[in-house]
């Protein structure tokens, strides 16, 4: 029932206010998150909950299969605002194993409109086809591509002018790649942490 959601909201608000009096009033005055989270829209991967963050602590962008495309004004605007206005210190791309978007991209089915979005994942799959072929079953290929996708999105973020500009200005900003397992609720750090343009392929680097 839809009314359950509103009831839940009232009791949640009361509980927070009881535990931390003045919480909402303080939050309304300003937000000051240190993290930008870019994750999948999947209902099983709720950003704040899985990292135990309260309202105000995480700036969030979610879309199907956590893609960061340089033509996606929505995502770029979120990154721009987070980096240059809020001054977040970390951008976390968090994918998840068994991602439906990645699974769909690996299939040859026609899904209609969304195929245009999934094509970006197909491109990654094609680029790393050898790695995918090394997997013995479909589940393995899906999960491998989920990881490769996160790694690629981390790079995409670093290649953006938004992030390069921040580094040029001496802003402390690092980009990380994580992957979440719906089966046990645990996040694995893929250990792709980039905090400068040092290793960036020349073609993406902007003049300093
Ligand atoms: Co997903």
Verbal overview:
With 208 residues, the protein is an alpha/beta fold. It is built from 9 helices and 5 strands. Strands 2-1-3-4-5 form a 5-stranded mixed sheet. Helix 5 packs across helix 6 (115-127). It is globular. The model has no long low-confidence stretch (mean pLDDT 97). Cobalt (II) ion binds at residues 40, 42, 65, 96, 99-101.
Hetero groups in this structure are:
cobalt (II) ion
Radius of gyration from the alpha-carbon trace, in angstroms: 19 Å
Describe the strand arrangement of the main beta sheet, using strand numbers: 2-1-3-4-5
Q: Segments where pLDDT lies below 50 for 5+ residues?
A: none
Instruction: Kindly report the average pLDDT value.
Output: 97
Helix content: 40-55%
Structural class: alpha/beta
Main sheet: strands, sense, barrel: 5 strands, mixed
* Counted beta strands: 5
How do you describe this structure in short?
The chain has 208 residues and is an alpha/beta fold. It has helices at residues 2-19, 23-29, 47-50, 73-86, 100-106, 115-127, 129-133, 138-159, 161-168, and strands spanning 35-40, 58-63, 90-96, 174-181, 186-194. The structure holds cobalt (II) ion.
Blueprint (SSEs and pairs):
Blueprint: H1 2-19, H2 23-29, E1 35-40, H3 47-50, E2 58-63, H4 73-86, E3 90-96, H5 100-106, H6 115-127, H7 129-133, H8 138-159, H9 161-168, E4 174-181, E5 186-194
Parallel strand pairs: 1-2, 1-3, 3-4
Antiparallel strand pairs: 4-5
Helix pairs in contact: 5-6
The chain binds cobalt (II) ion (CO).
Cobalt (II) ion (CO) binds at residues 40, 42, 65, 96, 99-101.
List the defining traits of the structure above.
208 residues, binds cobalt (II) ion, alpha/beta
